[in-house]
Structure formats: structure tokens, C-alpha cells
TrEMBL record:
The lineage of its organism: Eukaryota, Fungi, Dikarya, Ascomycota, Pezizomycotina. InterPro entries: Aim32/Apd1-like, Thioredoxin-like_sf. It comes from Talaromyces stipitatus (strain ATCC 10500 / CBS 375.48 / QM 6759 / NRRL 1006). This is Sucrase/ferredoxin domain protein.
Length: 286
């Protein structure tokens, strides 16, 4: 069980943050400055909640399940859409606390699936594991074998095909326009600016790019806290970390790439850090 470092009374102070903040002595005098040459900007009427404390307010979970749909927007509540894989995963019994989202991940299918039309790919985080050929009927097996790890069924006879996620980092952007228009507006702008800073270093990967390494950027459905848009979730494979940021604007993307993605530091934790976990150290924000 992870140890919570959150003060339930204060809602989070500097000493409570589980991720280090940048500081000018280690990171240079410009580490706190936001990008001044952004190529995109949020609309003037993009209003969010800028006052409320947000650190430690994320609902606890241990496994994040991303369902590949190939789309960047969905019905308002995918978890309530009966007959969908997202709904089935939200209803399944698991020993773990699951967070389930639709995503724009592209499905990989092969002839071993009994229902190729509805089969898709699921990404499990923070284990960075892709499972191909997932269908509604295979959800219990998916959970038993790859999440709870209680199944003894033979992998040789299963249609489910696991493979490692090739990326070193995964960044999730809520793009759920039909749930909140702010997310549909902010996600492509944040993605474009992240891409601008990642490409020169050869690190950018989109939803269809499976070259080893780099930073995979995916759109996901509602993650909660739309009033704190834009929400940006950064998963770091080697460190087993999730760093969940909010109130992100394009001018923050340079710092996110340089410090958060590559170094695990947060530039403005008092304003933007919602929480997360570090499995290597065994700590969470909840």
C-alpha cells in the first residue's frame, strides 16, 4: 500500500508534494519562466477555476486503462454506454482500483480474435503494457491476467496478445469536447506546443507512431476537473511515476518537456500539481 504524503487539513503545502519543484540553484535562473515564443494561444474567453487548491484531490487508483477507439471525442459519458468496452471495464470486478478512459489509440487486430470488428487495443499504465484483441467478452480475462494477475489460464490459447508499450513516456491530454468544450479547445493546442518542443530532440510520437523510446501523446476522455483545464497526465516508465498537472496553457509546455517529462520535476506545483504517484518510492498524493 502506498504511503500518502498529503495533509488532509491543508490540502497540500510545499513539504507535502511528492515530486520536486524546480529551483534556480539546480535548474538555472530561467527555470521558472514560461515560454515567451508560443506559436498557439488559448482563446481570451477560456475561463477556468484559478483559485481552488487542487493538490491531492485526485481519486485514488492503481491502474489506468486506456481503451483504443481511434477517436478524440466521445459521447458525454462513455462509462455509461452499455455495450461498450469502456462500460464493461468500469463494471468489472478487480482487486485494483481502476481508472478507465477512452482514447485515440489505434486498435491492433489479428486473426486470432474471434470478433475482429469489435476487438481493440488497451494500454495499461503505469505498467506500459499494450494488450491487443480485447473485446467485451475478454474483459474478465484481461483483468485476471494483466491487472489482478490471478489467472492461470494458458496464454497460448488466448486471443489476448500482450506487448510492451514502446515509449519511455506517455502524456495524456483530455480532449473530451462533448463533456466540456474547454477540453476540446485546449487539447490540440497543448499537443501542438508539446510537439514543437519534442520534435527537435527526436522525442515526439503520436497515436500511430510506435518507434521505440520517445514521448507518446494521446487524447483521452473525461479525467475529472475540467474546471481546471487543461489537464495533462505525464507517465514516466522507468520511474513508475504519474505526474498529474492542471491549468496548463501552451506557454507551460516548454517547462513540462524540459523538467516534468524528462526530469520528473514540476515548475509551478502550488498552482498546477493535482497529484500522482511514484511506484518506485511507494508514495502517492492521496
Amino acid at each position: 500500500m502506498f504511503k500518502s504524503l498529503l495533509s488532509s487539513i491543508t490540502g497540500g503545502t510545499n513539504k507535502d508534494y511528492i515530486f520536486p519543484a524546480v529551483n534556480t540553484q539546480e535548474d538555472g535562473p530561467d527555470c521558472l519562466k514560461d515560454c515567451s515564443d508560443c506559436t498557439v494561444h488559448l482563446p481570451d474567453k477560456f475561463h477556468i477555476d484559478s483559485e481552488r487548491k487542487i493538490y491531492g484531490k485526485v481519486k485514488p487508483f492503481t491502474t489506468h486503462v486506456l481503451v483504443g477507439t481511434g477517436k478524440s471525442d466521445w459521447v458525454s459519458k462513455p462509462e455509461g454506454e452499455r455495450g461498450s468496452l469502456v462500460h464493461a471495464l468500469c463494471e468489472v470486478s478487480s482487486k485494483e482500483r481502476l481508472m478507465v478512459n477512452a482514447s485515440n489509440i489505434t486498435a491492433h487486430k489479428d486473426d486470432s480474435s474471434t470478433d475482429r470488428d469489435s476487438a481493440t487495443t488497451v494500454l495499461l499504465l503505469p505498467s506500459f503494457q499494450l494488450i491487443d484483441n480485447v473485446t467485451i467478452s475478454s474483459v474478465p480475462e484481461l483483468v485476471a491476467r494483466f491487472i489482478d494477475k490471478t489467472s492461470t489460464s494458458s496464454a497460448e490459447t488466448s486471443a489476448l496478445k500482450p506487448r510492451p508499450c514502446p515509449h519511455d513516456y506517455v502524456v495524456l491530454l483530455c480532449s473530451h469536447k462533448r463533456r466540456d468544450a474547454r477540453c476540446g479547445t485546449s487539447a490540440p493546442l497543448i499537443k501542438k506546443e508539446l510537439e514543437r518542443h519534442l520534435r527537435p530532440a527526436g522525442l515526439y510520437r503520436d497515436a500511430t507512431d510506435e518507434r521505440p523510446g520517445g514521448v507518446g501523446i494521446f487524447y483521452v476522455s473525461h479525467v475529472g476537473g475540467h474546471k481546471f483545464s487543461a489537464n495533462v497526465l505525464v507517465y514516466r516508465k522507468e520511474e513508475g511515476q504519474l505526474i498529474w498537472l492542471a491549468r496548463i496553457r501552451p506557454e507551460h509546455c516548454e517547462g513540462i518537456v524540459k523538467y516534468t517529462i524528462l526530469q520528473g520535476k514540476v515548475v509551478h506545483p502550488e498552482f498546477q500539481l493535482r497529484g500522482g504517484f511514484d511506484k518506485e518510492r511507494g508514495v502517492t498524493s492521496w
